[in-house]
Amino acid sequence: MATLYLASGSPRRRELLAQIGVPHITLIASIDETAQPGEAASAYVERLAREKALAGLASLAEPADACVLGADTAVVLDGRILGKPADRDDALATLEILSGREHEVLTAVALADASRCESRVVASRVRFRAISRAELESYWASGEPADKAGSYAIQGLGAVFVSRVEGSYSAVVGLPLLETAEMLAGFGIPCWQHLG
Ligand SMILES: Cc1cn([C@H]2C[C@H](O)[C@@H](COP(=O)(O)OP(=O)(O)OP(=O)(O)O)O2)c(=O)[nH]c1=O
Asked: How far apart are CA 143 and CA 149, in angstroms?
């Protein structure tokens, strides 16, 4: 069986992979995350997930028996990608746009080994209740929005804003577990059901 590497600095992704009983080694693959002009959000997240997996594979001294997983998450509203906030003002502006509305969360997962790279994109919809300015300010002060796509975490304090989720909860957090398990099986890597 190939050794699985997770090309991610995200603690959420590590926890999600561990949740379904998949042993892995974490590595960090740095890539340029700039969107290309006119690039659709779905194409963007898929490209980044693939680039993370391929950069991770390229960084290994012995890639022959390795499989590398990369993922990327973006919050999308009216065709606009709302990434991680640059600063407090950016986070507050993002959360103000999301307040009282439904948005899309796109998460791509990619698996690469020495002979192929496969990827999938999972779309989910999340609705927020209306959020007051004072609440947004205290949410920023909590520290949670700083490193999250769309400036919130559904698995954290941000859960109190979420009135509805349609799609994959784990994908919103950072890794679509059903799709990831299926893809891992295709690379001969079992989840909890098949581990002794
Ligand atoms: C929407 C949402 C995002 N997030 C997080 C997941 C990701 O860590 C982050 C999206 O940014 P990404 O750029 O997808 O990932 P990352 O830079 O954190 O990690 P890496 O590229 O090394 O894999 O936002 C949550 O934790 N909860 C949420 O509800």
From this structure: 14
CB-ligand 1 contact for 9 (6 Å cutoff): yes
Calculate how far, in angstroms, residue 160's C-alpha sits from the geometric centre of ligand 1. Answer: 19
Q: Model confidence over 36-45: pLDDT tens digits?
A: 999 999 999 9
Q: Which domains does the chain have, with CATH numbers?
A: 3-187 (3.90.950.10)
pLDDT of 182:
97
Pocket test for ligand 1, best of 6, 12, 154, 157 (most atoms within 8 A of CB): 12
ipTM over 0.90: yes
Cα–Cα distance for residue pair 73/51, rounded to 1 Å: 14
Residue 195 has pLDDT above 80, yes or no: no
Secondary structure E strands in 90-129: 102-112, 117-128
